[in-house]
Amino acid sequence: MTADVEHTLQDLTHLDWSESATSSATGGSYLKARLGDGVEATYYKLSCYDEVNGVYGHECVNETIAARLMDILCVRHVPYKLVHARVLIDGREHETWLSESASFRKRGESKISLARFFGLNRLEGETRLEFCERFGWNQDIQKTMLVDYLIANRDRHGSNLEVLKGRDGQLHLAPLFDNGLSLCCSSFSARQLSEADPLQDVIANNYLGTRSLKQNLTRFVPGNLPIGRLREAHEAQVTDGLAPSLEEAVQGVSGADFAHFLWQMIWERWCAYEDLRDRGLLEAQG
Question: At 13, phi and psi to the nearest 5?
């Protein structure tokens, strides 16, 4: 078993799921909980929840898949642990899977969303991408755009990117986090999955660039981006141990088959990226 998946059922009924973010994509909410404060905080996140269906979907599994992918590609990210747990929501107990992560801030660091930081520090007429280039964050943004394309991430809004400031005053972008609204997250049946196009251009809530993941890839990601290389042999590394958590995510599809489907989606998108790169169709300059 892998260290980033806890299969033994944990009792987390003490967590307070008072924080939530509503998503128009699924009609539910993504409940959050926290233990501790500041740099000592541990954060917990559920997949989609509503009062009728309880906890459903596989956004938390997507966080683990995205983290493993970024390990291979050498992209800075928040490590996520997938945990099998009992939780208590509005007096009702649920057995589910959730994401657990530690604070990414170091002692003495402060953080602010990129959207707010841009609003406070932009120059007149400066675009968001020009702003990031001025602060030397081009390569971080380019890697973010590539990862979002590979996982078909729908939600890279201005608070899903953060700026960290150290005690020495140095500024840098935080490691990537909140990658769950991706990878066919709104497909709940075998029929929906069979109709899904792995290469579909996802229209996303992108704070940077355009709303098109493919346009962001072709216009802003250079062909010589220094990044690890994904290979077909990485399937086991990306999907190991995830079948039980995906078992009921899609009706009529086993957890193992769904894990393979999600890998194939990433792999086909990676091959499309490599094809564009090798044919010189990525417009950005390194």
Answer: -70, -10
Number of CB atoms found within 10 A of residue 221's CB: 24
Residue 168 neighbours by CB under 8 Å, 6+ apart: none
Give residue 27's pLDDT: 40
Average model confidence (pLDDT) across the chain: 94
129-133, 179-183, 200-204: least confident range: 200-204
The residue whose two tokens read 């033994």 is 8
- Rounded distance between C-alpha atoms, residue 265 and residue 149, angstroms: 11
Tokens of 214: 């493919």
Residue 168, exposed/middle/buried by CB under 10 A (0-12, 13-18, 19+)?
Answer: exposed
Q: How far is CA 97 from CA 84, 106, 225, 236, in A?
A: 5, 28, 35, 20
Beta strand 5-11 pairing with 19-22:
unpaired
The alpha carbon of residue 23 and the mean position of all alpha carbons in its chain are separated, in whole angstroms, by 15
Is the per-residue pLDDT at 46 higher than 70?
yes
Residue 63 CA from chain centroid, whole number: 5
H helix or E strand, kind and range, residue 121: helix 114-121
Question: Residue 113 — pLDDT band, cuts 50, 70, 90?
Answer: very high
Structure token digits, residue 61: 């599994």
Collapsed DSSP state (helix, strand, coil) of residue 98: strand
| 174 DSSP 8-state letter | P
3-state SS assignment for residue 161: coil
Q: Residue 184 to residues 121, 190, 196, 250, 262: CA-CA distances in angstroms?
A: 36, 12, 8, 10, 8
* DSSP states along 19-51: EEEE-TTTSSEEEEEEES-GGG-EEEEEEEEET
